[in-house]
Amino acid sequence: MTSPSHPDTHPSQSQTQQETILIPPSTATTFTRTLLEFHSVPPTHASIIAHCLVLADLRGVDSHGLNRLPSYLTRIRRGVLNPTATPTLTQKTPVVAQLDAHNGFGFVAARTAMDHAITMARDFGIGLVSVTHSNHFGMSAAFVQQAVEADMMSLVFTNSSPALPAWGGREKLMGVSPIACGAPAGGKDGAVPFILDMAPSVAARGKIYKAARRGEEIPGDWALDGEGRRTTDPAEALKGVMLPMGGAKGSALAIMMDVFSGVFSGAAFAGHVTGPYDPSREGDVGHFIVAIKPDLFMGLEEFKGRMDYLYQKVVGGERMEGVERIYYPGEIELETARRRGEEGIPYVRGEIEALNREADEVGIAHLAEI
Ligand SMILES: NC(=O)c1ccc[n+]([C@@H]2O[C@H](COP(=O)([O-])OP(=O)(O)OC[C@H]3O[C@@H](n4cnc5c(N)ncnc54)[C@H](O)[C@@H]3O)[C@@H](O)[C@H]2O)c1
């Protein structure tokens, strides 16, 4: 199936009309799972990773979907990511546990951590899991969504490899580490759950890699080149630094992610995390995962009714000039997921070719014949 690109969550990147191939989510999931299993990833773990990557592509977060596979597989082949690692949990208090990811996939560590946090929250109202020795876990919203599906509020923090300067600096120090959180809603009159998932940079670095892959320009306020100048060339931007959103405040949020995910957990921090595109060393990423029972101070239905009311107030407010519709955090992604779930996920030719090259390496069926 071939179609022109259609608008998604990130209009700046869909302005360039490129031919895309629509892939059904089930095909993308099977392909990913098979590819991972051929790289020694146990089937249950491969399913978790495939679910998270396909969910990112479904939600329009293409920067953190299937296109990340080649970098993860390179890390396995270079021996810096352990495909067979099984996370271990150590209970510290009734509501606090530490998870050692043993240098396995971040997706598996975060999914396991959120599962355990939810179990603790069911019994005690809150559950916190600090994760160490992990790797890149992709789109944070996958784990917020996991909590929402269990009727839980959540915080999902991670640190990441250096890309962002401290405010006033020009060298890479902090990661573009996303801050994510969520809460379930009742769904009355179209109300959707609250799902915030944002990088503290003007844009996620994955979007620059995506623009580079697709031969697209980036907006001039996303990054500085290696000489400290603003640039619209993704290749030049990757030599320089990302710009924090909101100046010093974005830089402060990135430091916050490092305090809670890195310093606190025992994982690498202060610029020492290794990124997913650097296959020279183990990642040693840290995560901070919290689940909170929303019905601690009132019944669950009342909580959800209040969330629905908040939704209606947010999206029903007076609009500023030129704005057609006010969205709730996570709503654009939810609508994109619904549409892509029916139509298929659009991948550009170069992306499919890169994935098919991985398929050829291990002799499995292509994602699509192009
Ligand atoms: N694992 C890692 O190390 C890592 C690092 C960086 C980014 N990421 C991922 O990259 C993704 C992209 O991050 P981003 O900051 O570029 O996302 P974004 O700017 O597209 O969206 C950020 C948040 O703002 C909300 N939003 C966007 N437009 C809106 C609108 N018009 N009205 C209301 N709400 C709106 C979104 O729902 C989302 O919650 C995230 O999923 C993040 O987890 C991961």
Describe this protein's structure.
It comes from Helicocarpus griseus UAMH5409. Belongs to the LDH2/MDH2 oxidoreductase family. This is Malate/L-lactate dehydrogenase. InterPro entries: Mal/L-sulf/L-lact_DH-like_ah (IPR043144), Mal/L-sulf/L-lact_DH-like_NADP (IPR043143), Mal/L-sulfo/L-lacto_DH-like_sf (IPR036111), Malate/L-lactate_DH-like (IPR003767). GO terms for molecular function: oxidoreductase activity. The radius of gyration is 20 Å and the shape is globular. It folds into 2 domains: 1-77 and 344-370, Orthogonal Bundle (Hypothetical Oxidoreductase Yiak, Chain: A, domain 1), CATH 1.10.1530; 86-201 and 244-328, Malate/L-lactate/L-sulpholactate dehydrogenase, NADPH binding domain (Ribosomal Protein S8, Chain: A, domain 1), CATH 3.30.1370.60. The protein starts with a strand and ends in an 8-residue tail after the last helix. The protein has 370 residues and is of the alpha+beta class. The protein has 12 helices and 14 strands. The longest helix has 19 residues, at 106-124. The model is unreliable at 1-16 (pLDDT under 50). Helix content is 39%, strand content 18%. Helix 2 packs antiparallel against helix 3 (43-58). Strands 3-4-5-13-6-9-10 form a 7-stranded mixed sheet, with helices on both faces. It has a 3-stranded antiparallel sheet with strand order 1-2-14.
